[in-house]
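User: Predict the structure for this protein chain, please.
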Amino acid sequence: MAENGGSKAKDVFKYRKGYHKRSPRACDECRLRKIKCDGARPCKPCAVSQNTCSYESGRKPRQTPTERIRVLENRLRSVRTSLESLKAQHPPDQTADVDKILRTVDLSMPPPSDNESSSDDDDPDSSRLNSMMGSSGRSFAHGPWQTSFYGSYSGCSFVLRTLELFRKPPDTVAAMDGTRQVITDLYEAPIPDIESYTPAESRTLPSQPMALDLLGVVFTRNSLLVQFLHEANFRDMVYRLYNESAVQFSASGQTFMPLFHAVMALGLLSDIQCRRQDGCEYAVSEATKHFLLARKGLDVSQCADLISLQTLLCLIIFLISTSRITAAHAYLGVASSSATRLGLHKKVEEGISLSQAQRDTRTRVFLSLLQLDLYVSLVLDIPGFINLDDIDTEIIGKLQPSTTGKLPYPFDITAESRAQFSASAKHLELLVLAATGVHNAFYQSLRGPEKTRKELDFTSVDVKTLRDVEHKFRQWTKGLSGLPAFPEDPETSANMKFELEMTFYFGQLVMYQPFLHYLVPMARGSPTTKTQSEHALACMKIAGTTISRTDVMYQRGLLCPASWNTIYTLFLAVSSLLFLIATHPGTSRPSNAWKKGERGITLLAAMRCVDNGAVKCLLNIKVGPKPILGAFWSTWPCSFPTNS
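Assistant: Here is the predicted structure, written as structure tokens:
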């Protein structure tokens, strides 16, 4: 009886509710997907999903996919070396089988190399990479006489190319036009009309303390791009505006009012405290009001002085910050024309009566104009207005970052001014590097015989040219150590460093995104060379780093919804990760890309404000390859989280 009772108790324990026999091991696929594995070879989940079922020993940490690829490459090279050694030991008429194995096993693998450089350079076919962006660009017709063009390597072209690779084309023309409208709205947001603001509101000026606070916000948030403004002189003009009579001030300050309104627009747009207290809608509305007043007070056809040119630059920064890149490009044309007519690109002749302060302002204005011209041309991938070859060498020398802590002119002698100017010059150097890199790597290869239709979709890129550009990027990062110390204000210093970082990531993403199509054969297990996988995975690494650094700034409370450079670079990073996820349809692989992509989308959602760039970037992401990323979207809420 006792034995029967004990046996019955064991049976009850064995078949209690929720009980299952736990497998001592799980395959790599089930471990990655966090599902139950029965430990068979192959296990049932892998057999159903037709995935490769493999097991690791468990004695060491699981390797990353990149590490596993490298191990397989090394093993294949070792096998190839052994086969070639075996082939050399026998007469040629006895090695037919060995030759067949070599062609089958290692058709696309490069020979082994003793150093870290890619060994693909020995093969003429492997010394070039295919760019998926093509060479024709994208044109959109908005009417019988109106078209808009985006270059082959613009963000707009990248999003459209991704949709072509992973999403079925829309069934109707209206659906296609709707998708294109969402994508181009990131760059072509409409400008509001001044008639939408009442005259009473238009005559209202902020109080003097508020105006001075907004001026400080401009120099804190946009310090890299507003070197053309001298803060001390501008504050003096603000004091005069509020403390002198209208008759006294109008005599010398008539041209100052458009510049004042333009700077106030930038301050209201970048003031995080104002957004938190009064709301995003109020801040953007007030900023737009000042922008329209500045534009109304400026005669664009008569920008023949530095103050008018400074006002134009402020308007351009405002347009970029509010996702009006194409409008900013039009204003840049006027500003570039004005700058060349003022002779800012040439050395001032002897005998011209210009003070040292005026010469300094000319240099700073030209510096900011070049920064904006190069950045907008990179975003849209269209030629810039100012040819760098037409600038005098002396002017180029003044635009170089200072490595000795001294400026080439003694107008500003404060450490803060030296650091800010050197950081802006370093920013310009990076933009020049990115622009010339894109031109040399992707457009120089297009010169030559006429391309076929197939070659227009995938253009060939010289690997050696890419290596040279990568080397210059590394040299630029090493040069950061020689810059003067950043300002003592920690917030200004953090913003300057972060903007430099984001511009660096932006340039690298533009360089590496054209090679993301190599992720498709890698995901399918098809053979790819080391050079191909390196450039595709490099984009993934940069995208992950971009999201991580942005997350750090978010945790510190320093992200600003008006920073279009940050928003756009973050959008490119998320788009790159979604490209990787789309190459693994129906699974949660690769898990790290999922986590980073989700965090990037959360950061974009946290930077939303009315209808700013973050909102438009999220809409661009939503029109992505949803049929393939169905599992991703099913885990994401329909409404994005609100600002914290």
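The first helix runs from residue 2 to 14.
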